[in-house]
Amino acid sequence: MTGPDLPPLREVIAKHGLSARHGLGQHFLLDSNLCRRIALTGGPLEGRQVIEVGPGPGGLTRAILECDAGRLVAIEKDRRCIDALNELAGHFPGRLEIIEGDALETDAAELTDAPRRVIANLPYNVATPLLLNWLRNVKAYESLTLMFQTEVAERLAAKPRTKAYGRLSIMTQWLCEVRFAFNIDKRAFTPPPKVMSSVVVLTPRPQPLAPASWRALEKVTAAAFGQRRKMLRSSLKTLGIDPAEAGIPPQARAEELDVPAFCALANAWEKANPA
To answer: How big, in percent rounded to 5, are the helix, strand and coil portions of the chain?
Structure first.
């Protein structure tokens, strides 16, 4: 894991005037050891195809390349960062491609050959929509190593009967094994965010945890957790679902059900509401 002699990231930031912008959810991570730890959290990178979102001045980008990723495609929306990233690409000939654009409007799976991984310090303001986009085609990825606000990361890994358990927990765990890797103190960032951050590794399951369609599971979880304190016979009434028909006690509440139970409810709704 060696790389070219690169200028310090603080010099790169100063040279290109890359002050973090709140509107873009930017918080730059400059600690090279921490970036390397994130890069390798999902496993060795030798020869791997990797996609990064929101590289900013390129701290994590450097680490991924120095950990011998075969090719890295970085999607960056902030035009100010492109010149700095192009300079970095010059130090790693043929291995770093920069895409200037909005990751929410980009099909990441089309940017590299399989097997591919996503490794990213996600901009806070678009982290959840990005994840949901990737989940819809999650089998296209070998793994996703992602940094979120700790509150969001806890929701991804939450178990039933906990406060953090909800729609995002179910949609993610339905399709992926979730590993909560480690926390990162807010003081590690420039500028420091107001909250802690956490790294999570998502590994797509060979098959979903239980049979269901995205459309139906999304519909049922939205209704159930939209009124999470009510019994399911009340919260699902507008969908015309009788929980008992899916083998679920009508007096149960949303936070008490595991993922397969929600899949059973989703299948009941879809049977009554075919696409």
So the answer is: 45, 20, 35
How far is residue 185's CA from residue 35's CA, in Å, rounded to a whole number? 13
CA–chain centroid gap for 121, Å, is 9
21 vs 184: which has the higher pLDDT: 184
Give CA–CA dist 33/38, Å, rounded. 9
Q: Are strands 143-149 and 197-204 parallel, antiparallel or unpaired?
A: antiparallel
Domains of the chain: 9-204 (3.40.50.150), 214-272 (1.10.8.100)
Spacing of C-alpha 190 from chain mean position: 21
pLDDT at 17 over 90: no
Nearest to 48 by CA among 98, 111, 1, 117: 117
| Interacting residues of 92 by C-beta distance below 8 A, sequence separation 6+ | 3, 4, 65
Burial 217-247 (b: 16+ CB within 10 A, else e): bbbbbebbbebeeebbbebbeebebebeebe
d(CA 236, CA 269): 10
How many other C-beta atoms lie within 10 A of the C-beta of residue 129?
11
Prediction pTM value? 0.93
Contact 73, 94 (CB under 8 A): no
Summarised one tens digit per residue, pLDDT across range 135-144 is: 999 999 999 9
